[in-house]
Specification:
By secondary structure, the chain is an alpha+beta fold. It is 25% helix and 28% strand. The strands form 4 sheets. The chain has a 9-stranded mixed beta sheet, sandwiched between helices. The protein has a 5-stranded antiparallel beta sheet with strand order 12-16-15-14-13. Helix 2 packs across helix 5 and helix 9 packs across helix 10.
Length: 383
């Protein structure tokens, strides 16, 4: 496919529309050298925040296809792990060409240099593996993809872009000890618990950058540095919404057994919980370990919005709060022996009591025993 005139300039301009040129020159150069269009299928799915999902098809509407590629829009390339055709427009998004703005931001934080050994978790379409190969050399990139079909297509895309990094099929949570040690670990899927294997396979001073999805509310970009003592430590550096690693997917709990259901009313509008700041999300997630998701729609009684809160580690502990327009109180339904909705409200009150700290003040330490979330300093552990 021949590049339209000005296409790359438009894509480069879209990398950091809100950051006033913060994207480093090395990232811009890589995007020019490894153009995105080589990694996007002829038919993809775009799902704008302000509209319905729609197909983009290079053969039937090439202008719309090129416009999508030159935008910050993610392009969905798989639904339901491949079980549902894109043409249905409905299903769970399970693979994509990520937003170029987010890709550029994470590469900025990763700061790979020529000759560094890089482990990538989640090959996807192969575009980021191609960018990394350009930056550090093909022989220094190891990329792992759990889906064999996705990995096969990524290999073809990379070959078309004249790059041949090491491509593996498997569970990225295990890393690749055979090609360790690594100087950088770049993660392209949402992570709730950072696998210690990544830390273990890194040199001291290595950097790990990942989309961190604790499960409550907003998702975050997390930058960790590996220390001499075998731990990794770092701070939240921004936002990054990615599809979850398959082995860490969080599944809604509302279909679990419903014994001990308690129903009552709350004056708190659940839309307020859904719109909390990232700092509040981090605090509530760390203090409770709970996860949340939101659904909305309309029925015979009008519009509705429902916020679900659940315990991801024990089935049958969840609560839902449903908003309806023109109602002063909202229905709470609680299941199981853990008062999860009450815990969320108490954790929110603690965050307010701390002075409503911004997301920039949170960090994470990863050890062989697990991960700890802290506020301001690693000694101030909150979860």
């Amino acid at each position: 496919m021949a590049l339209p005139s000005g296409h790359l300039d438009k894509l480069i301009a879209a990398l950091d529309p809100e950051k006033a040129g913060d994207i480093a020159g090395f990232v811009r150069d890589a995007v020019r050298a490894v153009p995105r269009h080589l990694f996007v299928p002829a038919v993809g799915l775009v799902a704008p925040d302000d509209g319905e999902p729609r197909l983009i098809d290079h053969d039937t509407d090439p202008d719309a296809w090129w416009d999508a590629i030159a935008s910050t829009q993610p392009i969905i390339t798989q639904l339901d792990d491949g079980a549902t055709p894109l043409t249905t427009l409905k299903g769970s998004y399970t693979s994509s060409s990520s937003s170029p703005a987010t890709v550029a931001d994470l590469l900025n934080h990763l700061a790979p240099e020529p000759g560094m050994r890089v482990l990538e978790i989640g090959t996807g379409t192969g575009w980021t593996a191609g960018l990394l190969s350009h930056l550090v050399g093909d022989e220094n990139v190891t990329s792992i993809e759990v889906d064999a079909t996705v990995a096969e297509q990524a290999g073809k895309n990379l070959a078309a872009a004249e790059h041949q990094p090491a491509l593996l099929v498997g569970d990225g949570a295990k890393g690749c000890p055979d090609r360790a040690p690594y100087d950088r670990v770049h993660v392209t899927c949402g992570i709730r618990h950072v696998p210690y294997a990544w830390v273990e396979q890194c040199r001291p001073g290595a950097v790990i950058v990942l989309p961190w999805h604790p499960g409550f509310g907003a998702s975050h970009a997390l930058r960790l540095e590996v220390r001499e003592d075998g731990t990794a430590q770092g701070r939240v550096v921004g936002g990054a919404a990615y599809m979850m690693m398959r082995s860490q997917r969080l599944r809604p709990d509302e279909k679990q057994p419903q014994e001990e259901t308690r129903r009552y009313w709350t004056a708190l509008d659940p839309r307020a919980l859904d719109a909390l700041s990232a700092g509040a999300d981090l605090a509530i997630g760390a203090l409770t370990g709970l996860v949340t998701h939101t659904e909305s729609g309309a029925d015979d009684d009008g519009a509705w919005l429902c916020v679900w809160v659940s315990d991801p580690d024990e089935a049958g502990r969840w609560a839902s709060v449903t908003w309806r327009p023109d109602r002063a109180v909202h229905a709470v339904r609680q299941v199981g022996d853990r008062p999860v909705w009450d815990e969320v409200l108490l954790a929110y009150a603690r965050w307010v009591g701390w002075g409503e700290p911004h997301w920039r003040r949170y960090g994470v330490t990863v050890t062989p025993e697990g991960q700890r979330v802290w506020l301001d300093t690693p000694d101030n552990v909150i979860g």
